[in-house]
Amino acid sequence: MFCSLGVIKSSYSSALTPNSNTFLRPGGSAVTYYFVVNQVTASTSDSYTFVADIGIDTYDCLNRSNPSSKLIACNDNGASGRNFMLETLMAGQTVILVVTTFSALETAPFNVTVYGPGSVTFTGITMAIALKSMSDGKFVTAEDAGNGPLIARGDVINGWERFELIRLDGGKIAL
Predict the structure, then answer these.
(1) At the N or C end, where does the chain have fewer CB atoms within 10 A?
(2) Where are the beta strands (DSSP E) in 2-159?
(3) Cα dist. 52→10, 11, 80, 101, 157 in Å?
(4) What would the pLDDT profile of 89-123 be if each residue is shown by its tens digit?
(5) Which InterPro entries match (predicted)?
(6) Given pLDDT bands bounded at 50, 70 and 90, which one contains residue 13?
(7) Are 88 and 48 within 8 A, CB to CB?
């Protein structure tokens, strides 16, 4: 279907698991959906086709700068079965690919293949959070390059006020 002379295929594999990031779908009920986010960068400016291979029904989006703004396209069932297919023009830009499910709380391994005139690279995006004190409105800072105590003293969010959110088994998290 996509294999022809001059088409380059790039692939990425991952899984939606109970340790994946979660969100509440806008306008939906208080139901949780797992998602994985990747930055995708094309080596050549032209049209690329994104196709997923996953055993569950997916709903996936491409965004220009971050997962919450500048939507390029979303798709649910554009390829065979219940997999998505997105086609976009990547004019020397980096896009954000969000892989999620159509139904809540579904998990499965998946593979995304991108077809186009050049290779693409996939870079996982981690979720960063900032912690704000309820008593004085200051942001928590990682003192001594993270080797000291956590102290709420920052007025703005800079590098030392950002923490990577790591999901653990049993609904627990780590920073």
Answers:
(1) N
(2) 8-16, 21-24, 32-42, 46-54, 58-66, 69-75, 85-90, 94-101, 108-116, 120-124, 128-129, 139-142, 150-154
(3) 12, 10, 9, 12, 36
(4) 666 677 888 888 888 889 999 998 888 888 888 88
(5) Actin-crosslinking
(6) very high
(7) yes
**The pair of three-digit structure tokens given for residue 95, joined into one six-digit string:** 């896009």
Question: Of 64, 65, 71, 57, whose CA–CA distance to 26 is shortest?
Answer: 71
Q: Which of 121, 167, 163 is nearest to 146 (CA)?
A: 163
**pTM confidence score:** 0.68
Give me the amino acid identity at 43: S
| Tokens coding 96 | 């954000």
Nearest CA-CA partner of 159 in 145, 172, 148: 145
Give the C-alpha separation, 167 to 150, whole Å: 20
Structural contact between residues 62 and 95, judged by C-beta atoms closer than 8 angstroms: yes
Q: Which two tokens stand for residue 3?
A: 């294999």
